[in-house]
């Protein structure tokens, strides 16, 4: 995710720095002015963020993790969303849930447009300034930002990811087929 989105953002003119397990996480978290993308397995996310908490204070932190476990189960079921847990581990960071509904290969498309329609990216967050930053980053990869509500609604985005991944990977189903066009939605 970091490579795919970072490459797109660099093409759009943003300066990008990546950190990895082997080092550079703090330097990447402190780099630049736009945002920090948290692109680690969910099982490591809270610990990684807690270790970087001082560097993340006041920063926009984009959470693209998915708390999906065996059998495409939701690992956070019955408790706070992964994004809320991440926000608790980094007090002072402005967490926005985004970019979690698509496989990494979708983010390598330039731009991700399907049937002539740009991909919509749901955003969940509580800080309007942070949401503005992420909206710009969404547009910079050729997508449309979609307001999905506050960070408390991130649990819905995470559950949607578990459902979609299970349908796509587990069943080989065309998950797009579950949503009718807008004119039939209500």
Q: Assign the structural class, choosing from mainly alpha, mainly beta, alpha/beta, alpha+beta, or little secondary structure.
A: alpha/beta
Would you report the number of β strands?
A: 7
Question: Helix tally?
Answer: 6
The N- to C-terminal Cα distance equals: 34 Å
User: How would you sum up the major sheet?
Assistant: 5 strands, mixed
Mean pLDDT: 94
Q: What ranges have pLDDT less than 50 throughout 5 or more consecutive residues?
A: none
Helical proportion, percent range: 25-40%
Written as H for each helix and E for each strand, in order along the chain, the element string is HHEHEHEEEEHEH
Strand order of the largest sheet: 1-2-3-6-7
Descriptive account of the structure:
The protein contains six helices and seven strands, in the order ααβαβαββββαβα. With 186 residues, the protein is of the alpha/beta class. The chain has a five-stranded mixed sheet, with helices on both faces. Strands 4-5 form a two-stranded antiparallel sheet. Helix 3 links the parallel strand 1 and strand 2 (60-63). The radius of gyration is 16 Å and the shape is globular.
């Amino acid at each position: 995710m970091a490579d795919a989105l970072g490459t797109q953002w660099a093409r759009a003119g943003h300066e990008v720095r990546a950190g990895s397990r082997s080092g550079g996480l703090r330097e990447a978290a402190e780099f630049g002015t736009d945002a920090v993308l948290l692109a680690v397995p969910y099982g490591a996310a809270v610990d990684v963020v807690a270790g970087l908490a001082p560097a993340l204070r006041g920063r926009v932190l984009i959470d693209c993790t998915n708390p999906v476990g065996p059998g495409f189960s939701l690992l956070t079921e019955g408790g706070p969303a992964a994004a809320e847990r991440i926000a608790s581990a980094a007090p002072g960071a402005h967490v926005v849930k985004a970019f979690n509904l698509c496989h990494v290969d979708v983010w390598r498309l330039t731009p991700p447009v399907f049937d002539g329609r740009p991909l919509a990216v749901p955003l969940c967050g509580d800080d309007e300034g942070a949401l503005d930053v992420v909206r710009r980053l969404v547009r910079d990869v050729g997508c449309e930002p979609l307001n999905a509500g506050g960070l408390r609604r991130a649990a819905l985005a995470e559950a949607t990811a578990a459902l979609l991944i299970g349908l796509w990977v587990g069943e080989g189903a065309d998950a797009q087929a579950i949503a009718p066009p807008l004119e039939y939605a209500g």
